[in-house]
User: Fold this.
Amino acid sequence: MSQIIVFASGKGGTGKTTVTVNVAVALCKMNNRVLLIDCDCGMRGLDLMLGLEQGLMYDTGDVIAGNCITPDAVYSHPSVRGLYMMPAPMDAQDEIAPEVMKQFVTTLRNNYDYILIDSPAGVGSGFISAVSGADRAVIVINPEPASVRGAQNVRRELLKHGIEDIRLIINKVNEKRFFQTGIYTDLDEVIDRCETQLIGVVPEDHSVVVYSQRGSPYLNDSPVSKVFTNIAFRISGGNVQLAFPKRI
Assistant:
């Protein structure tokens, strides 16, 4: 039975979708079958980051509306074995109701090892739909005040919806800029303010942006690749030490 994990953020621009994609790829490299579900109706981006935008005919909205059967809206990645994606509707008006999403995701549980749901930023109706079928959550932030405040809000809403297994990924960490800014003493302070257990620190790396724009999930020649591998290992229950940036 799948572990269903929603990836959320309190504000846009944290790199949440990029993180979701690369965690999924890392899980696939551990011989898992992983389904990515895009819940950002009207602003979908998973298909672009995976290079699957060409030839998409159906999405989750079509399945719910009865325009196709579920397998018709599931697209396999041609290069990453075990990676599958369901796109969100292009029209925001086709957003799926939370109770429907919960039932829908339940029907998929036995087909994959992991189902990762990419939630839209914020805690609006799309967020509520995305979290409705999830067992666990990962909040993606940047180490800056607006993002931290957003994470606090997301955490409160997740708890309201019965999700208590919540983890934190701090993304786009530039060590020199972080310490020069002096907003926080260290990352421990960021974690404390988010009140969420850390599962990974992803350093800022331009190659991540390059790969995303190319529509490729690969980060094989980037040091960030190892970070996502470790995050995937922790998600699957493994124990590997976390690396923190040091004051320069």
Summary: Residues 145-160 form the longest helix (16 residues). The mean pLDDT is 91.
